[in-house]
Design goal:
The structure holds 2 protein chains of 2 kinds. In chain A, 32% of the residues lie in helices and 22% in strands. The chains are: A alpha+beta, B alpha/beta.
Chain lengths: 514, 414
């Protein structure tokens, strides 16, 4: 992999840079390598960019401040593959949604991620709602969204009997996906194709000297010829750090409820309320690919971009609104609540939202800057990645990496298999016969595969997001102790080493007794 | 795949499953298998190393493992078939059972099935406690498993939400292991656990119990850093201005138990919305013929001794079912007034003596429980005190049942 680096930066440059660095920092950089591209942020967009860059002969690194991919906005949303009927025609949001939506069967197959093209209902009750639906139908059609139709109550009930509403707009192109599974798959595929991922590396300072960017993180120093900013909520901060000023990110926080799988079967597709006059979609109900139902999100402006707490006021409001979308909504079916923050690019001091930015600037060479990537960033991640790479290609020739393999295999989900396959799996590997998570039916074989994931993530939530273990109705009551034990045993960790999710989120205070 | 035929398949080798197996065997049923997902028998008692078990049944106080060992020893002595490390993943209404173990996929066909899967804990998500999601928030049973089975200390500065028995037992356990248990908060205006645990686990260790309080915020981005508690009004709404902050690294939740009936639902068993367990008749038979349920999968019990008794009662009926092929129809429904949360059974035949198990919804003093059929009181039990933490059991003689009219259980407060 070193060879690709020499090819692109030249040994002279590198030696010069190293000498400079040695003089300045006393030789700490001796063994570090210079990347062609460093991507800041391992959300769905950063992971998609990494994966798309790995199609070419380039040495790519990804710096992520958390301990896993998909810890911010990417993993904290409704998990909907949007069709693209709400965005201004010609906007990047519209283009990326339509493009990303259309190609997703192929993407899901290549990356082996669960995905269902369920369709979606945008329901209405009043004349005003009908006007709104007609407006969005027309907008969607101009944007290139296929199959939009206004349907009456009878058809609405046929499509989804759990949905409220007197009439609806039906969007057959909309789908649902698991954002964790998708981001992990993109990142793992990138990793298989040679990309390096560095977790717990928050970028604190960026300097460019001798055409090389030096990125100082909380943990280490990295060098690269190009830098991509795909840092989501922090995109304005990183943008400024890179030398592009003037962006404002507004954090729009949304809280959700997750409902038990046992009610999931009542719902066929996402049900949204007709947008209000401001174009806001409001609280909706969405089935997940795994069979749960999400109710949410609220939308509150927040200044604290790490404030993922939930509040009783907002949750109470969700209950009222949620019942309009999903009629069989009952409090006893709650299994969890969560929140996410959408990084909207806004006009400073207002709530006016602006389009995605994917740019390069002459005055700031070799920086690809993505700012304000909120919804439909999950749907549009790969289209955004291709646009980022096109900007790179304007400056440098891309050489195909013949070894690039777009195929990535996920963890086989035992509980989804037929009895015949289950039998075969156990006979090949007895660990499939040991159920660790009873609610989701996750076996020891799946947990082991997750613990040994190629990105090297071994937090509790890392294993959870890769397998669904602890995501069921008992929330780890049965399996958490077992998973903790497997991680410690497999990765030779002590009780003190084991973390729940982030740095510092230790699980235990050592042994009870020596 | 070869389907193994059995007279009785028992799902779960905890106290209920073990007692049912032994009593079935005593009644001459030998073609039995217990399927247990853990590597050992004993169920949740394995982690209950405190004492207080067996006072009713054995007239001595035992630890959980000691109590279950008495049953396990007999099961082994009698050679009752048990497979451990085997998880049942499906039951059909035709009593076909699919299980997985490291040895492979197993299929059974049973003449009768005993559901004894126990219960699970209610979680933070189910009651939507606001706040962030740091590490250090544990359900009491999970903390108990870490400490007692895995030699792992979950934290040092501890707050407990809920005055359920496991929560109080963990308050004592963690104090004994050097943790600082700061307080127990209970949303209700009365404790939800047993009086003896309040005395032995809280009072004896000077751990304060605050009633009518709940947690209104959880703080910390990585590890738990603290919580906010508020007093609540009669509708359990936090009262503004009563917030108080506590620093802690661990929050233990003991906020209720829910019968674990996912397999029952797969078999088509009708559940009671109040107990979250199956609707059963006097024989503990569910709405699906040949499928029976007892123990905490049926109703959450206060004491394991009563679980064993219930299982034995089930086994007696099941033995009749196996030998006769059917049981008398149970057409008499049992209803309750608002003071009683539920009864087990919910249906009886009137042709057999039966025992009604119930709990009151709130603490009552000097009350009587009347069992009424066709406006005639057929049984009265006078109680000086009744609390939700304790199960009440009332024996009803079959001679008192004169018709197929509904039976009503009501509370009269004097």
């Amino acid at each position: 992999m070193q060879s690709t680096f020499y090819k692109y930066t030249g040994i002279e440059d590198m030696l010069k840079f190293r000498k400079m660095y040695r003089d300045k920092y006393g030789g700490v950089c001796e063994l570090s390598q210079i990347y062609d591209v460093i991507i800041i942020g391992a959300g769905v967009v950063g992971s998609a960019i990494a994966r798309e860059f790995s199609r070419y002969k380039l040495k790519i690194g990804v710096l992520e401040k958390e301990l896993d991919v998909c810890c911010g906005t990417s993993g904290r949303n409704s998990g909907v593959l949007h069709a693209g009927f709400t965005y201004k025609t010609g906007s990047l949001r519209a283009q990326c949604a339509v493009e990303g939506n259309t190609e997703f069967e192929k993407v899901a197959e290549e990356l082996d991620v669960p995905f269902k093209r369920t369709g979606k209902l945008v329901i209405g009750f009043t004349d005003e709602d009908m006007q709104s639906l007609l407006k969005y139908k027309a907008l969607g059609e101009v944007n290139g969204v296929k199959g939009l139709e206004i349907i009456d109550k009878e058809r609405l009930c046929e499509l989804d009997s759990s949905a409220g509403g007197e009439f609806a707009m039906y969007s057959p192109a909309t789908g649902i996906l698991n954002p964790f599974a998708y981001t992990v798959a993109l990142a793992e595929n990138a990793k298989q194709n040679g990309v390096d991922f560095y977790f717990n590396n928050e970028v604190l300072e960026v300097k460019r000297e001798n055409d090389i960017y030096n990125l100082l993180t909380g943990k280490d120093k990295y060098q690269a010829r190009w830098v991509v900013n795909s840092s989501g909520l922090n995109s304005a901060v990183i943008s400024t750090m890179l030398g592009i000023d003037g962006y404002t990110i507004g954090g729009f926080k949304g809280e959700y409820f997750i409902l038990d799988k046992k009610v999931g079967k009542h719902m066929n597709m996402p049900v949204y309320p007709a947008p209000d006059s401001k174009g806001g979609f409001g609280i909706h109900a969405t089935p997940t690919v795994d069979g749960n139902i999400l109710i949410g999100p609220s939308s509150e402006l927040t200044k604290d971009f790490e404030d993922y707490g939930v509040t009783s006021e907002v949750l109470d409001n969700l209950i009222d609104k949620g019942m309009k979308m999903f009629k069989p909504f009952k409090k006893e079916d709650f299994i969890r609540s969560f929140s996410g923050i959408r990084p909207k690019r806004i006009v400073k001091g207002t709530r006016q939202t602006l389009d995605f930015v994917v740019e390069t600037r002459e005055e700031v060479p070799n920086v690809i800057n993505l700012v304000g990537i909120e919804s439909p960033g999950l749907t549009g991640a790969l289209p955004l990645a291709r646009r980022a790479i096109a900007l790179f290609a304007e400056k440098e020739k891309l050489i195909s990496n013949e070894k690039f393999d777009p195929i990535r295999k996920g963890i086989v989900c035992f509980s989804d298999q037929s009895n015949e396959v289950k039998k075969e799996l156990i006979s090949k590997d007895p660990n499939y016969g040991e159920i660790i998570c009873r609610c989701e039916g996750i076996t020891k074989a799946e947990i082991l595969e997750a613990v040994h994931n190629c990105l090297g993530v071994d937090s509790m939530t890392g294993i959870k997001n890769r397998t669904r273990a602890t995501m069921g109705r008992c929330q780890g009551g049965y399996c958490q102790t077992r998973i903790a034990e497997i991680i410690m045993e497999e990765n030779n960790k002590t009780r003190e080493d084991l973390v729940y999710s982030r740095v510092g989120s230790y699980m235990f205070k050592g042994k009870v007794r020596e | 795949m070869t389907v193994i035929k059995k007279d009785v398949v028992i799902i779960g080798g905890g106290p209920a499953g073990l007692a049912a197996a032994l009593q079935l065997r005593n009644r001459g049923i030998t073609d039995i298998i217990i399927i247990e997902r853990e590597k050992q028998l004993g169920g949740i008692l394995r982690q209950c190393i405190h004492d207080g078990f067996g006072l009713t049944r054995f007239k001595e106080t035992l630890s959980g493992p000691e109590y279950s060992q008495k049953f396990i020893d007999q099961v082994e002595e009698l050679g009752i078939e048990c497979i451990t490390g085997t998880t049942v993943i499906d039951i059909t209404s035709k009593r076909k059972i699919t299980a997985v173990s490291r040895k492979g996929l197993l299929e059974y066909e049973a003449r009768a099935v005993v559901l004894t899967m126990g219960c699970r804990e209610r979680t933070r998500g189910a009651i939507s406690i606001p706040g962030t999601r740091p590490s250090g928030v544990y359900n009491a049973g999970v903390a108990q498993a870490y400490i007692n089975l895995h030699n792992t200390m979950v934290g040092k500065e501890v707050i407990i939400l809920g005055s359920g028995d496991i929560g109080m037992i963990m308050a004592r356990r963690m104090t004994l292991e050097g943790a600082n248990v700061k307080a127990v908060f209970e949303m209700q205006s009365y404790p939800s656990g047993l009086p003896r645990n309040i005395q032995q686990c809280l009072n004896d260790y000077d751990i304060p119990l605050y009633l009518s309080h709940t947690i209104t915020n959880i703080k910390g981005q990585s590890r738990l850093e603290g919580i906010t508690v508020s007093k609540v009004d009669e509708k359990f709404k936090p009262i503004p201005g009563t917030q108080k902050d506590y620093t802690c690294d661990t929050l233990i939740l003991s906020v209720g138990l829910i019968p674990e009936n996912e397999l029952s639902l797969a078999a088509g068993v009708n559940l009671d919305n109040r107990t979250k367990g199956a609707i059963v008749d006097e024989n503990y038979q569910t709405s699906i013929e040949g499928i029976f349920a007892c123990g905490n999968v049926l109703q959450v019990h206060d004491l394991v001794d009563f679980v064993s008794l219930e299982a034995e009662s089930l086994a007696n009926s099941m033995a009749d079912y196996i030998s006769d092929g059917k049981l008398p129809e149970c057409k008499i429904n049992i209803t309750t007034d608002a003071n009683i949360s539920h009864t087990i059974p919910q249906k009886v035949s009137g042709k057999k003596d039966f025992k009604l198990s119930m709990r009151v919804r709130k603490p009552l003093k000097d009350c009587e429980i009347d069992v009424i059929q066709n406006k005639v009181v057929i049984k009265t039990v006078k109680l000086k005190k009744a609390i939700p933490a304790e199960m009440i059991q009332i024996k009803i003689d079959k001679t008192k049942i004169r018709s197929l009219g509904e039976i009503e259980v009501v509370v009269v407060v004097r």
